Each structure stands twice: as C-alpha cells, then as structure tokens.
Amino acid sequence: MENIQVQQQEKTGVHQKVTKVAVAYGDGIGPEIMEATLKILNAAGANIEPERIEIGEKVYLSGNSAGIEKSAWETINKNKIILKAPITTPQGKGYKSLNVTLRKSLGLFANVRPVNAYAPYVETNFAGMDVVIVRENEEDLYAGIEHQQTQDVVQCLKLITRPGCEKIVRYAFEYAKVYGRKKVTCMVKDNIMKLTDGLFHNVFKEIAAEYPEIESNAEIIDIGSARLAAHPERYDVIVTSNLYGDIISDIAAEIAGSVGMAGSANIGTNVAMFEAIHGSAPDIAGQKIANPSGLLNAAIMMLSHVGKTDIADTIKNAWLTTLEQGYHTADVFQDEITKELVSTSEFADFVIQNLGNKPNNLPVSNLSSGKGTIKIPAYVRKEQKQELVGVDVFINWKGTNPNIIGEALSKIDSFHMKLKMITNRGVKVYPEGMQETYCTDHWRCRFVDIDSRIEGKLVYNTLNFETIVALLSKLHNEGFEVIKTENLYEFDGKRAFSLGQGE
Fold first, then answer.
1. Is residue 130 located within the same domain as residue 250?
2. N or C end of the chain, less CB within 10 A?
3. Shared-domain flag, residues 271 and 366
4. Helical H runs in 44-159?
5. What is the pLDDT of residues 85-136, one digit of tens each?
6. Is the dihedral of CA 413, 418, 424, 428 positive or negative?
C-alpha cells in the first residue's frame, strides 16, 4: 500500500521539523509572488528550508531544450517537495512544456485543484462554490505523441491506461474520504470514445462500489462542463482525465472569481509539486501588482501535505481575514468592497499581521481536522487471453473515390486475408459509403481472416502475425503507400477495437 499524502498531524511537533523544499522562482511575476509567499511562510513559523532551482525561460534560452538543468533534477530528487512559481515556455521554437515534463518524469499522477468562491470579497456569481477537481496528470492526449501521416492529416494519440485510471480514481475517493467530502463525479466522453473514456468510466464504477458511503455519479464532459459553469454548487469532488481536467479546472477557477486565487497540488508516490494555476503574466512583471494568492494557496496545500496542517490553517485563516478586511491587489479590486489597493509585498505584510486571526464571514480553514492517509494500492495486472484477429492498414492515397481504392484492395491476392471495410476520418466509405462523405488522403483499410464473418453478427477468426506481414509486403509490391498499421485484438473474447462510424 502506497501512502501518498498525509492529511493529519500524526507526530508531535511535526510543524517544528525543517522541511527542505526545491523552490523555483519562475519567470514573469514568478519571483515577486515567490518572495511574498516565502515571507509569509517564514513569519508563520513553517520551518521551510528553500533550495533554489533554476528552471524555465532562461534555461530554455541558454540552449537547454528541456528547460531544466541536471542540478535541478538532483535537488528535486533529494528534497521530494517542489514549490514552483509560473514559468514561461518560449513560443514558436518547438520547446516541450516543462510543466508536462515535470509531471510525467516525476510520476505526479494527480493534479488536485480546490476551487472556492470568496464572495463578496472576490466578485463571483456563485458565492457558495466549493469544488475540488482531481485531474489525471500523466497520460491522455498530453502524452504528446503526434505525427503528420499524409499531406492532409496529422494525428495525436490518446493513451488511457488501466493503472492510470485506477490510481486517479482511487485518489479522488480517498481524498473525499479523508476530507469528509460527500460526492465524487466522474466526467468522460464515453458515448463517443467507448474504449479510452469507456475504460476510465468502467474503472470509476468498479472503485466507486468500494466506497458505498460516498455518493458517486458520471456525466458526459460537455454537459458536465456546462452544468459546472451554471451550477457549481451541485458538485463536490470531480475526477476526470487530463485534457478535460485542464479545461474544467480553469472554468471552475474563473467562475469562482479569479484564476489568480487558486493553487494546485501535483501528487506522486515519492514527489509532490505545488504551484499556482495561473501563468507567468510577463506583461505585469516588475510592476509589483501581482496577486500572490494562488502560489500562497499552493504553499498551504504543501504544508498540509507534509503534515503541518496547523500552520497551513494559520496562514489560510490569516489570508481569508486579509480578504475580509479589504486589502486587495488590483486583479480583485472592487470599488464598494476594497478598503485599500495594495502591492504584492504589502498584501503579504497584511497577511503576516493577521497571523493568528480568523475570518468572521468566510468559512474558517480547518485542514487539521482531516483524518487518515490517502492510500493507493500497487497496480496488479489481471492477465487476459489476447488474440490477434485483424489489422487496420492506413494508406496514403491521393484519390477521392473510395470505390476505386476499395475495389483495388479487394482484388489483392494475399494469403488468407480479405478487406472488410475502409473508413476515412472514422466514417465508413467502402463498401456502401455515402457519396456526400468528404474524403482526405488518409484511408483506414481493415483486413481480417478470410473466413471471418463480416456480415450480421461479426465473428473474427484468429490470425498469425506472419499473415499480416505478408499482406503488408503484398500492398507495398502493388504500389500502395502504407503509413501506419494497428493490430486488432480481442481480450477474453471481447472486441478491443472500434467499429467504423456507419459500420
């Protein structure tokens, strides 16, 4: 059993223990808000020992395409905790996102974003909003595997894994259990992506059954996003995959009042990273007007993670009190509410002055009441019978009439293989396609065993891989440009590939 995140203070005097943290000051407004945040942590007695690491724009532009030096990796691996200000990835030069690199390289599988409204001190239409979004952080389309395959078509691979689904879904339920949350909602698009999002949804249902005390439901991501934007009070904890989570967490932060207020945690088995959800805002860098609240809230989550929940509560309550008193940075300024417009450092000073105070109107932070440890069991693979039953051959062909390529492929004399269908952009165009379907130069041609039943109830016979190799050789010799193949499998007799639209 892997203990991922401690939510209670289990050791006497844990708050007095020095916590070594790899600190990235970031780019743009990053250094300003980091200085303010560390100043507050120090004043609160958090006992944080920061060790600075250099990552981001300067490292990129120095010639390091990864945006991070080897020494920074060493510091991270030593300290296991990262507090990171926003960084800038130079545009237009093919640089990979360092944020994604950090999350995937360090196994930070869970992105946790609590989103709260702070009405009336921060303008919002949803005064009671209190939602936690738990986003899978390593896979999905963010695997970043893309190819241009033909003149007309590029592809991006969506990778969803069972171990990835199990970890993030269980984390969401364990989080709800530890923090006393009542409901977990899964958001997917499995009405279309029946295998990838279908796997996520199925795992959710399996794990939800282990937590009968927590309400659970699933929603299609498009209507779910709309409902979240209109009625956030209906949601408690939301768990979803990488891309959907990226989108809805920003939606949630925006409708709560300000993206600049929210922090996030990136949790792995051995390492955790804490950051504001907003960007580096280079347009206001150096003007001393940036709001440090997002990074400060991330630091509060960091303190909770390492067991210093009493200090986390002290800082959070001081911050809430400061909001109530009307000391606001420019991004949340309101004529009727704001008492004084303050700079980044001045805001930090007011938070420090309020250490030990609690808000009168906003909910008091009580992280120290959390009970237990989030536990994620090691993944155990369940062996299945895997049988090869066909192959999708993707062909680059400049023609536009599917009947021409279909008839040509049907005539190919390849040992024990026959053409079942052709799709273009997922739509069946041969046999019996629609004249109106627009076709590109990217053709998915499905071949199966010659004795397979392809009409009525489908029955696929097993194949030898050598048969597929012979087919590919034959296609090449006949002048067809094969650009990609996908083997078709059944697992325990169940079809593990999608049908064509209209098939």
1. yes
2. N
3. yes
4. 57-61, 70-79, 98-105
5. 999 888 766 677 888 889 889 999 999 999 999 999 999 989 889 999 999 9
6. positive
